[in-house]
Design a protein that fits this description.
By secondary structure, this protein is α/β, with parallel strands linked by helices. It has a single domain, classed as Rossmann fold (3-Layer(aba) Sandwich). About 30% of the residues lie in helices and about 30% in strands. Strands 4-3-7-8-9-10 form a 6-stranded mixed beta sheet, with helices on both faces. Helix 3 crosses helix 4. The relative contact order is 0.17. The structure holds guanosine-5'-monophosphate. The site of guanosine-5'-monophosphate has 18 residues, from strand 2, strand 7 and helix 5.
Length: about 200
């Protein structure tokens, strides 16, 4: 694979253009990207975005990708393919067959409720160098749940990659203040009046 090491602008141009073309603003600061990320998925865009994340973490040692089901799974698999590592996805329901697991509670931004998530200790282990990937960063609840699980496992958090960050919510600021390397391919400063304004 030919990976150009030059970094692009803050906003990865192919994603920014696609959001402007197909993204839909909903009430309450929600961006709908169902036609290319969250329901129907464009594999070519996913591939380009994954290569961009690989570039942004080119200096990090990554043993494993972690994400939360369901919307993080597609970007996580594509990224893991390029990095040639495994993906583990945190589950939202405890499977009857899973013991030996770590659990935490996450508040859902879209469903406005708390839910318990879990991951097997077999797949998130002491010393693993883990990169978290998700579709959106809003208030950082999902990210905080992942941090808790990684700490419980005594694994190492390499950083966090998001396709879309909404910087008018607090997640990105708080995570960066914690010293975490956070990379977002599109950063949206405002969705006020249903107008999409990117960080420039
Ligand atoms: P957080 O946990 O950072 O508050 O919210 C991130 C999670 O909520 C993501 O995993 C994503 O599924 C969902 N989410 C947050 N904001 C949006 C949004 O504007 N659009 C969509 N489609 N999902 C969002």
């Amino acid at each position: 694979m030919d990976i150009d090491t030059k970094l692009d602008t803050i906003n990865f141009p192919p994603l920014k253009e696609r959001i402007l073309k197909n993204g839909i603003c909903l009430e309450g600061g929600i961006l709908k990207v169902d036609s290319f990320i969250n329901h129907q998925i464009d594999p070519n865009l996913l591939k380009e975005m994954s290569i961009e994340i690989v570039k942004r973490f080119a200096n990090s040692k990554i043993d494993k990708i972690i994400t939360i089901e369901a919307s993080g799974i597609a970007p996580a698999i594509m990224l893991a393919f390029f990095l040639n590592v495994n993906v583990v996805f945190v589950k939202k329901k405890k499977p009857a067959t899973m013991d030996n697991m770590l659990t935490t509670t996450v508040y859902s931004f879209t469903k406005k409720t708390n839910y318990d998530v879990c991951v097997s200790k077999d797949f998130l282990a002491k010393g693993d160098n883990v990169l978290f990937v998700d579709d959106f960063l809003a208030n950082g609840h999902a990210a905080n749940g992942i941090i808790d699980l990684i700490n419980q496992a005594q694994a190492n958090l390499v950083g966090m990659a998001f396709l879309i960050e909404k910087s008018f919510q607090e997640g990105g600021k708080k995570l960066r203040e914690m010293g975490i390397k956070v990379e977002s391919l599109a950063i949206i400063d405002s969705l006020d009046n249903c107008e999409i304004k990117f960080k420039e």
